[in-house]
Amino acid sequence: MKLTCILAAALLPGLFLAGCSKEDPKSYSKVDYNKDGKIIFEELIVVFPDLTVEEFLIADADNSGVLSEREYNRFRQARDAGKKLDASAPPLAPEPAKPAEPAKPAEPAKAAEPAKPTEPAPAPAGAPQTPAAPASQAPAEPVPAPVAPVPPTPAPVAEAVEMVVAEATPTKAPAPAAATSYTVARGDNLVRIAKKFGLTPQELMAANGIKDADRLEAGKVLTIPGQSGPAAASSEVKPAVAAFVADYFAKSSAADVTALVDLYGESVDYYKKGKAGSDVVRQDKAAYFERWPERSYKTAAPTVAELPGGDIKVTIPVDYVVKRAEKSVRGKATFTLLLRPAGGSYRIIGEQSAVLEHK
């Protein structure tokens, strides 16, 4: 029996190692699914289903919208102790400063080279050449020529000049950045919405008077502060954008899954699924069309906002009717499409929708 165990250990070392080296499923590298060096809310809630937005905001000590490894370790220490991270938790210890590199010794200064004797400047053409003095004799110092006295220049008579003091033009203070709005979609949370607009969750909560970060209902219209300039909403819709939106709803009504998926980019911020590929979009659309075989959409004028980097956010109010067998549902919703220019058209890189009312 003893000999059998020794042979098994010698022949199957991989099995023994595999049984002893089980990686911690809650380690930072495991929770960071996409291996980008940071943990977002959606990644953390997979491992800790009872996570709340409030607890995530407390764990995010630097308000960056993501957790670094040090922030995650503090969060996990609290969870391993059987409690949630709250405002009473000790602050995150500052990161230890890196030791300064020793200064390199200064190189010794080079000895100055002896100055070379100055060569006399060449005489102009036609000037008599003065023979050079012997090296043993010092050259005679030149005698300066007498300078003729310069007669004093009479002071000019000053002309009377009329002094005109220009009045300073008051500088107008820059107008405060205008606020825009955002309709909360299914699966949205404050962390994701704030990150989308370059804000912190606390700024978003303050602008909308939100007390509880976990009570965010789909369809609620949020005020997004400071979104002026190119990111501000505009009623002007380019013909190419209007044509793209019309094509999107036409293919959705016709249940043309293949043609509809062709309108999407390779990676899409897709509802509560987060970043998804075209295969996820295809499965979701096919399942929806099977559940509601008949669909019709009546769209109102969309609102367009140009975002930094060239992307376009289009919000479309929609009256919809969906039917199956003897059941019919109608209502109002808003669709939000994030479009990225591609050739002469666009590709969808983000999609959200919110049902405002239904019957």
Automatic annotation (TrEMBL):
Location of region: Disordered: 80-151
Gene3D superfamilies (UniProt xref): EF-hand, LysM domain
CDD domains for this protein: LysM
Compositional bias segments (type: Low complexity): 106-115, 126-140
MF annotations from Gene Ontology: lytic endotransglycosylase activity
Keywords per UniProt: Signal
KW Signal (keyword) present: yes
UniProt cross-references to InterPro entries, sorted A to Z: EF-hand-dom_pair (IPR011992), EF_Hand_1_Ca_BS (IPR018247), LysM (IPR018392), LysM_dom_sf (IPR036779)
Residue stretches making up the LysM domain: 180-224
First and last residue of the signal peptide: 1-18
Signal found in the keyword field: yes
Composition-biased stretches (Pro residues): 141-151
Pfam families from the UniProt entry: LysM
PANTHER family named in the record: LYSM DOMAIN-CONTAINING GPI-ANCHORED PROTEIN 2, MEMBRANE-BOUND LYTIC MUREIN TRANSGLYCOSYLASE D
Name of the protein: LysM peptidoglycan-binding domain-containing protein
Organism name: Solidesulfovibrio aerotolerans
